[in-house]
């Protein structure tokens, strides 16, 4: 009796394990899928509606809010500004600057992003400003539900009445995904493709830039640190040179990294705030450190908050001391964006100007990959890249 019983137990365990594996596989297949519902209806399940997360915040295409939720959305492609409004309340997303303001000029910290050629906006901010509710509902696949006063069902009733609909949507989506070479899931900040230029008229990607800057200068600001070598490697791989503006405010500088920067053919300059006192003296001390490390000195200065904030006396004092003032004209926002979003910020701006552009990047985790993408774009579209040096006419905001 013991042997048949043991066989029966083994058989039951095998069945349970098999069912468990099937359940796990089914769950995993839907783990990366989020359904979107507005009031009592689902939106089509595709990359044009599926939410993503960026910096811990949940985002959806701005079109999710237009229509039945009573919000109008308009995008000014020339200014790269998206405005959401219901007549009384508005949110103005400036994609080129990464800023957000409401109708009372209150600012917010969750900007809009271009993701897969679609503008995504933060769910929490938009719902809060326009008196909407949102909830993340656990189901066969997570559901983001956004509602106004027209919703008639509670979350639990909505899910229980939609079981067949949810299953049909998931089956159709998984079948489509398994039959293609890749998922239609939005790529977000991890995309490895070269960002494409954006047509300022349509706001859509184009095969070639609408315009090209006459020259591009790559400028990295901040003290050299743990990400600097990776940035240098990215520049070496692209065959491009850059300027590294390091603090002249008494910050301790890594002399080994300074030697690497100079040794690999890049330029070193200094950064100061416009409020700094005794600028020539601070620059002299910083040059002592640079000379001790590399045998070189620099007369290039980037005022962190813009040279236009210098007084006439400060400007003259620096010019009389032999310094050249450079300003960044385009911030990549690599301090807050992922590599793809930072690179898209840069390439979109580059495709809409013929003026020389100084691209500002930091030395952050995202910067090396951002550099690769930006350099690939510059090479692909044959945009001239020049190095900031003392002999070049500076680009600055001094009038």
Question: What would your notes on this structure say?
Answer:
Helix 8 links the parallel strand 17 and strand 18 (324-326). Strands 14, 15, 16, 17, 18, 19, 20 and 21 form an 8-stranded parallel β-sheet that branches. A 5-stranded antiparallel β-sheet has the order 5-6-7-8-9, with helices on one face. The protein has 10 helices and 21 strands. With 399 residues, it is α/β, with parallel strands linked by helices. It has 2 domains: 35-172, Copper Amine Oxidase, Chain A, domain 1 (2-Layer Sandwich); 216-386, Glycoside hydrolase/deacetylase (TIM Barrel, Alpha-Beta Barrel).
Strand content: 15-25%
DSSP summary: helix tally = 10
Q: Give me the secondary-structure category.
A: alpha/beta
Average pLDDT metric: 83
What name does the CATH topology of the largest domain carry?
Answer: TIM Barrel
Under CATH at level 1, the class of the largest domain stands as Alpha Beta
CATH architecture of the largest domain: Alpha-Beta Barrel
